[in-house]
Amino acid sequence: MSSLAMPAPEAATLARRAEIVAALRAIVPGEGTVDHETGMRPYETDGLTAYRQMPFVVVLPETVEQVAAVLRYCHENNIRVVPRGAGTSLSGGALPLADAVLLSMMRFNRILDIDFDNRTATVQPGVTNLAVTQAVAHAGFYYAPDPSSQIACSIGGNVAENSGGVHCLKYGLTTNNVLGLEVVTIEGEVLRFGGKHLDQEGYDWLAFMVGSEGLLGVVTEVTVRILRSPETARAVLIGFPDAEDAGRCVAAIIAAGIIPGGMEMMDRPAIHAAEDFVHAGYPRDVDALLIVELDGPQVEVDHLLGEVERIGRAHGATHCRVSESEEERATFWAGRKAAFPAVGRISPDYMCMDGTIPRRELPTVLKRMAELSQKHGLRVANVFHAGDGNLHPLILFDANEPGELDRAEAFGADILRLCVEVGGCLTGEHGVGVEKRDLMDAMFSEDDLKQQQRVKCAFDAGHLLNPGKVFPTLHRCAELGRMHVHHGQLPFPDIPRF
């Protein structure tokens, strides 16, 4: 396991463990409070398995009242809390702390309401992403965001990390598909933001909460937008002998005014791993493969498929294959969605990165990543959402080999710095967590980070919710809140203050 600087455990909290566990068990009785090592072991890490820490205690509430009571108790007793969904986070967002209550929301697993007239579904945060689509599919609806982990990842975790998926190019990320939230603050106050209506009045609280990585509150209910399933959806595989040509093709498709339902790219190592695992019919004699899906009325889809194939050929494509049935289309996507476990078959360990770049920079970044692979002496397999420039390089390494994890981390950091350098950002959908925390100053100035922390302070002045995540240097709220008064005059005295 790699070393990672995290907040030092509070000695007073550790000394009171038996008392704290007893108090939590009174709130969430029976199996809802877990304090023995065997029961807590599954919670010691999330999808970023390079980092592990046994929790202080695990609590699995079933009601909003229990969540509020747990958070209120922790606030009153100055105890840290780490919220957790399904644990599929790839940035260490749910990494436990040695002195923090790990609050698992997976018992909140009910679909509360499906409203086809208003095209919404209201669910608890432990409902899996795929379960939402399965619950509405019989009426011809679906939930658009579809991370590759959708069979396991929870809606609450999707909200925390602002997850996307292969169809986020056309239909948006989680933030574009969430209409309302119920949130419990660290003080135990239950708040509601938005609802079934199109827009909420006043401040855009949903924008704060979606992607807040458990730093501002604990989500207990989510209202999402459901969409009508398209009349037709077909996918085309386009293979290229050169990855840079594939990158140029992506930009050309968007420049032509075509917005596919999804547009994914895989390089040779990922293609071969996925094909060996799923047998999706991917060509093995290409260096890069695009999967482009068009959806909508059949006449439009047929026309756009022809245009996409024409653009592909103009950029050097040597392979084009259009799905001829719904089963074949699903098989094309099955290979892409299984790429992460497939790569796990060819390497003892891998680190899945997440950065976003302008589409026009795809050729440059692919070339630079190949150079970085040589520099660090580690292989990389590329699988990413090409349409919106969201890269997911998989750095292959062996944690049992001395120094390889450190080299993998250094390689990943160089990739993320490259993303920022070309005009992109550190994350697209995995969040910052601990993985990118110490790179935040590569993208944000000190003033930017302080302003972000002021938002954190407004919700959680004691920094009790998910501490040690996102911010490389944590400032005290009192320090951030200082206001300079010059000659007895406040700055901007005409601005209302509350």
Automatic annotation (TrEMBL):
Query: Which PROSITE patterns is this protein grouped with?
Result: FAD_PCMH
Q: Give the UniProt keywords, A-Z.
A: FAD, Flavoprotein, Oxidoreductase
Pfam name, any one: FAD_binding_4
Q: Which residues form the FAD-binding PCMH-type domain?
A: 51-229
Q: Which co-factors does it depend on?
A: FAD
Q: Which GO terms describe its molecular function?
A: FAD binding; oxidoreductase activity
Record flagged with keyword Flavoprotein: yes
What this protein is called in its record is: FAD-binding protein
